# Entry
Amino acid sequence: MASVFCVANQKGGVGKTTTSVNLAAGLARVGQRVLLVDLDPQGNATMGSGVDKRQLKPSVYQALLGIAPLQEARRTSPQGGYDVLGANRELAGAELELVDEDRREHRLKELLASVAGEYDFVLIDTPPALGLLTLNALCAAQGVIVPMQCEYFALEGLTDLVNTVRQVHAKLNPDLVLIGLLRVMFDPRITLQQQVSDQLKTHFGEKVFDAVIPRNVRLAEAPSYGLPGVVFDRASRGAQAYMEFAEEMVRRVRGPAAASRSPNATAA
# Structure
């Protein structure tokens, strides 16, 4: 049965899509069966996975509205080794079209139930706004992964997100928990970032992932080639950090033995 996680942060530009794509590719490289769901109408996770959003027919939009089954809408990332339920601009209209539908917050959860047995992990990339699409992701997920920069404004946004997770847990999805905080775009030379990192570890303890993603130009370049960073330049510091994060996720969710289920995956 798949473990379903959404990658969320109500603040934009914090590396949600980069994290979603590279975690999906990293998990695939350590032998996990992965589905990446792109719930952002910009379709960046789709393009970053090497899937052309302009050619998507059907997409996650048609799947959410019941026009097409998920099995017809998903694609395979050519280099990433995982499946993608892609998005494009059509998805922007889904929020309005779902407003009057029954159980509109649970459309994605019901959709994913049809393929839950085919994957080990389902990752959902969310838009920065807390709208109906993000609410669908929170209702479908068992946990939330929060990528965040170690800056004081990011701490304010984190407070809002934690409150949102609590509300969804209380009213819509009792299975939802905060899985962990991932420090991204981290520069240890900056004192402020070290201070904020220490605050996070003080307040959240084990909820802060051990893996830390450095600021890395190779990760930023990878999407322009339609590749996850862990495929584009496997030797880069950013790629290695995301591989460490993927292995940490497997250990947390499946146990230590699962991380080495495919011993040759990281060398492939």
Remarks:
- The CA atoms of residues 63 and 70 lie 5 Å apart.
- The mean pLDDT is 91.
- The longest strand covers residues 177-186.
